[in-house]
Design a protein that fits this description.
- Helix content is about 25%, strand content about 20%.
- The longest helix is centred in the N-terminal third of the chain and has 15 residues.
- It has a four-stranded antiparallel beta sheet with strand order 1-2-3-4, with no helix packed on it.
- It is an alpha+beta fold.
- The protein has five helices and four strands.
């Protein structure tokens, strides 16, 4: 292909390329004969009949009506069986507060550094499940371990409204 076949942006001129293909096809003696005739001739030369060459269509699967499906554990579609999801583990975390600092300040942190958070002392903590706020609570000590006492649990309707 010559430089004349490309425009200023480097793209190939489609008309010039089509002309080159047409000229090459004429040179080779292929003037756009019937593709089906060429295919049939090639198959006959190979000794394959048209019936053998065409695969039989796959039988269509019968769709199963939706009312035949039921929830796992024997529940109906109207009342799903919640026992299926009760043992799925979720990640629960308590958030004391948040702040934003630069990477420079982050790298300068050492033992004993104090980070100021956006929450006031005595304010309740956020209880998050898989990153979604579900409650507020306060820190307690139980058998020498930290715990959290729920002070306000967010209703499912409020959680759904916050997702939207």
């Amino acid at each position: 292909m010559s430089d004349d076949d490309q425009n200023d942006s480097g793209d190939v001129n489609q008309d010039d390329m089509a002309d080159e293909w047409a000229a090459a096809m004429e040179e080779a003696g292929e003037t756009g004969g019937d593709v089906e005739d060429d295919w049939a001739a090639a198959m006959a030369e190979a000794g394959v009949s048209e019936e053998d060459a065409e695969p039989e269509p796959e039988p269509a699967a019968d769709p199963m009506p939706l009312q035949d499906f039921s929830a796992p554990g024997g529940g109906s579609a109207e009342q799903p069986d919640l026992q299926v999801v009760l043992d799925i583990p979720v990640s629960m975390s308590m958030e004391v507060g948040q702040t934003s600092i630069s990477i420079r300040n982050l790298l300068q942190l050492t033992q004993g550094s104090v980070i100021e958070l956006d929450r006031l002392a005595g304010e309740p903590l956020d209880v998050l499940v898989n990153g979604t706020l579900i409650a507020h609570g306060e820190v307690v000590v139980v058998n020498e371990k930290f715990g959290i006492r729920m002070t306000d649990v967010i209703s499912p309707q409020e959680r759904i409204a916050r997702l939207r």
